[in-house]
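Good morning C.,

I know you're traveling, so I'll keep this short. The sequence:
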Amino acid sequence: MALIEYLASNSVAFIATVFILGLLVGSFLNVVIYRLPVMMQHAFKLEIAFFNDDEKQYNALENEPKFNLAKPDSKCPNCQHKIKAWENIPVISWLILRAKCSNCKKPISARYPTIELVSGILSATTAWYFGWGIEAFTLIGFFWLLIVLTMIDFDHKLLPDSITLPLIWVGLLLALIWQPFTSLESSVIGAIAGYMSLWLLYWSFKLLTGKEGMGFGDFKLFSAFGAWFGWQALPLIILLSSLVGAVVGILMIAILGRDKQVPIPFGPYLCGAALVYVFWGERIMNWYLGAAF
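The tokens, ready to paste straight into the viewer:
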């Protein structure tokens, strides 16, 4: 209790603690980003084997070594060297090891410490901006999940239901119990409007072009934003995500020569727009209303 009271009364200690916690969680987020799609693929193969009544394949999959967010222990993908505790300190270990495996000297991607730093900085920024309270606590967890969703969608063009659906329910529960961001009525309408708006856009685009413009995971993610921040937040979030997505897409085609037929995941832009909304949404709306009227 004394520690909690101290953190609640000392903003510097609170921000520093949250920063360190964010770095530690960021290391775990790297694990989730890599392992969750593999776990989903394994579960999908099990379902196919069960559906096809392929007992041999099903048993073979069931008897594979345990693979989840806790097991097996982290290893170097190149030499299978088991990562020791001192080699797993967020950011610091990567610097000490000079971005190389201690055993085989294979380069370690800068992506891992980058995600850890993003998690730490974003967590600390949220603690600084909102201060001690339910807003900061819930948004820090919210942003951790957005980091995971952004990277998985970027890698696999996939937004897992195991994250998007709980996000919707947590948003609704927050509005029911505490209402830190919006009322319960606005949250419920936002969850419905978020899903249905992109669902209608998806089918309109598909009927007109015969192509799929986005995935169903985008509907659920947008629904989650509506549940968290209310239906009033949705127009600005979708506008910001569309603008950024269009600019990035054009630049990737013009500068990197990316094939226009290759789909670009929309989830990262939705997540980025939600982040902008949390910190600057009110100011943007006030500026727009002031400029327009």
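Safe travels,
E.
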